[in-house]
Every structure is written in C-alpha cells, then in structure tokens.
C-alpha cells in the first residue's frame, strides 16, 4: 500500500503485499531470508580490499535491488560499518552462521546482495569488474571481455 503521495512509494511504505517475488535468497543456515519484488541488477565483481576481506576470496560478487523492493526476514541480520568505505557503507551478515549477505551505502537507494546467497534461477550475468586498481597481488582478473572500471559508478548495468 502506498502512502498519500499520489501513488509514489516512500521509504517507509511497506512493500506491495501482492507482488510476486522476482528472486529469493538466504544465508547458509536460513536464519536470514529475503525476497526481491522488483528488478535485480546484474552481478558486478568487486575487487576492493573490503570486499576481499568480507568474502575471504579474491573479490565480492554482488547483484543489487532497489530498497523499496527488498523484503528481509529473520532476527539474525546484523550490520557492521565498512571502515574504509568511500561511500560510508555498511555490510549485513547473519549473526548465526556468519554468511555475508548485504552491502548498503546510505546515499544509494539500492542494496547490494551477495550473489551467492540468491536462489537459482536468477537470470543474471556477470556484467563488470569494479575497483580493479585494488586487485590482490596474488590474483589476476581474467581476460573475459567485461568492462573494467577503476571506480564504481561509470559502468552501465542491466536491471532485469
């Protein structure tokens, strides 16, 4: 239901109850689950230092959903500040199993979703490598023909 704003949804409006989810996902133990009731952005591979530390791998892989389309359930979601984030981001994880689930910058109206937490099928594809100037010295970005953006925000990404 929308607030009295001529049909425009505000951040405090609850999601449309009748909307079918576009996608679903969860943490490893299932204590944090979510539904996306709108479009998803294709996956970006982020090579920044924080995503590498957060994921424990060479990069983080993130899709995204508009905040108004993301419905999160479960009491185990915890947020931690991402200390070196140039966007003042926070990262959401399951306090029970430790799964990294979300990335959120307050200035953006979308939330990054760890791609590995999405239930198949997603219909998504890897669209770009970002923060490539921070790639680990032991890692090598593949010659996959995808755009390489030294900073986020300049690559056009598909929403489906």
What can you see in these coordinates?
- With 160 residues, this protein is mainly beta.
- It has a single domain, classed as Metal Binding Protein, Guanine Nucleotide Exchange Factor, Chain A (Beta Complex), CATH 2.170.150.70.
- It is built from one helix and eleven strands.
- An eight-stranded mixed β-sheet has the order 6-7-8-9-4-3-10-11.
- The N terminus is likely disordered.
Question: Which characteristics define this entry?
Answer:
mainly beta; 8-stranded mixed beta sheet; 1 helix; Metal Binding Protein, Guanine Nucleotide Exchange Factor, Chain A; 11 strands; 160 residues
Q: Can you count the beta strands?
A: 11
**Within the largest sheet, what's the order of strands?**
6-7-8-9-4-3-10-11
Q: Give helix % range.
A: under 10%
Low-confidence stretches: 1-11
CATH architecture: Beta Complex
Shape: globular
Radius of gyration over all CA atoms, rounded: 16 Å
Number of helices in the DSSP assignment: 1
Instruction: Measure the end-to-end span.
Output: 23 Å
> What value does the average pLDDT take?
87
CATH class: Mainly Beta
Number of domains: 1
Given helix and strand content, the structural type is mainly beta
As a percent range, the share of strand residues is 25-35%
């Amino acid at each position: 239901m929308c607030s009295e704003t001529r049909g425009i949804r505000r951040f405090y409006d609850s999601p449309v109850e009748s909307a079918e989810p576009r996608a679903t996902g969860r943490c490893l133990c299932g204590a944090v689950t979510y539904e996306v009731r709108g479009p998803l952005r294709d996956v970006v591979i982020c090579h920044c230092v924080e995503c590498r530390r957060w994921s424990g791998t060479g990069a983080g892989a993130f899709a995204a959903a508009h905040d108004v389309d993301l419905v999160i359930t479960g009491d185990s979601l915890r947020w931690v500040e991402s200390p070196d984030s140039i966007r003042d981001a926070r990262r959401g994880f399951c306090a029970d199993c430790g799964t990294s689930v979300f990335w959120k910058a307050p200035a953006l109206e979308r939330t990054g979703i760890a791609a590995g937490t999405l239930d198949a099928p997603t219909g998504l594809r890897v669209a770009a490598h970002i923060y490539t100037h921070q790639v680990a010295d032991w890692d090598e970005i593949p010659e996959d023909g995808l755009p390489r953006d030294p900073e986020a925000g300049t690559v056009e990404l598909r929403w489906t």
